[in-house]
Amino acid sequence: MSTHRSEIPEWECLSLVRQERIGRVCLIDHGCPLAFPVNYRLIGNDGDSHIVIRTSPAALIGRYDGPASFEVDHVDLEARTAWSVILRGKLAIVAGGHGLPDPQPLLTDDRHRWMLLQATSITGRRFVGTTSDDGFSVDWGLATG
């Protein structure tokens, strides 16, 4: 059993993130990291990328202003492939009017707080597993950068 892991270039990370609609925003609350699944839209290009989120002002995400990360993954068990992209930066409330695309959250009640994560780092990993006599596994590595 083996798994091949490779780095994904930034331009391809952005292309992969654009294909999905649900990711996890990760922030710190009382000294502990928390991850929340959210609908999102990616705007911008290399060097100027932002994640757009629409949430409730009463939610922890809607009150947050500070360092955060955003993770999007895709796993295809049939093909034995997976990828994971992490964007790191600062999550902040969007003040005033804007022309941001609507992330169309699954929950819509009271979701009128717009948030932006300005990406300062974008990293991605691709995993390709090969079969063996005892099955299949993927070796997820720690993100660096």
Describe this structure in words.
- This protein is mainly β and 145 residues long.
- It has one domain: Pnp Oxidase, Chain A, CATH 2.30.110.
- The chain has two helices and eight strands; from the N terminus they run E-H-E-E-E-E-H-E-E-E.
- The protein has helices at residues 10-19, 60-63, and strands at 2-7, 22-29, 32-39, 41-45, 48-55, 66-76, 81-93, 113-130.
- Strands 1, 2, 3, 4, 5, 6, 7 and 8 form an eight-stranded antiparallel β-sheet that branches.
- Strand 6 (66-76) and strand 7 (81-93) form a beta hairpin.
- The radius of gyration is 16 Å and the shape is elongated.
- The chain starts with a strand and ends in a 15-residue tail after the last strand.
List keywords for this structure.
elongated; eight-stranded antiparallel sheet; mainly beta; Pnp Oxidase, Chain A; 145 residues
Number of helices: 2
- Report the count of strand segments: 8
Q: What percentage of the residues does DSSP assign to strands (E)?
A: over 45%
CATH topology: Pnp Oxidase, Chain A
- Oligomer state equals single chain
Query: What is the CATH C level class, in words?
Result: Mainly Beta
Counting structural domains, the number is 1
Helix proportion range: under 10%
Q: What would you call the structural class? A: mainly beta
CATH superfamily: Electron Transport, Fmn-binding Protein, Chain A
End-to-end Cα distance, whole Å, is 28 Å
**What is the H-and-E element order?**
EHEEEEHEEE
Average pLDDT works out at: 90
Unreliable stretches covering 5 or more consecutive residues: none
Main pleated sheet: 8 strands, antiparallel
Radius of gyration: 16 Å
Q: What CATH architecture label applies?
A: Roll
- The rough form would be described as elongated
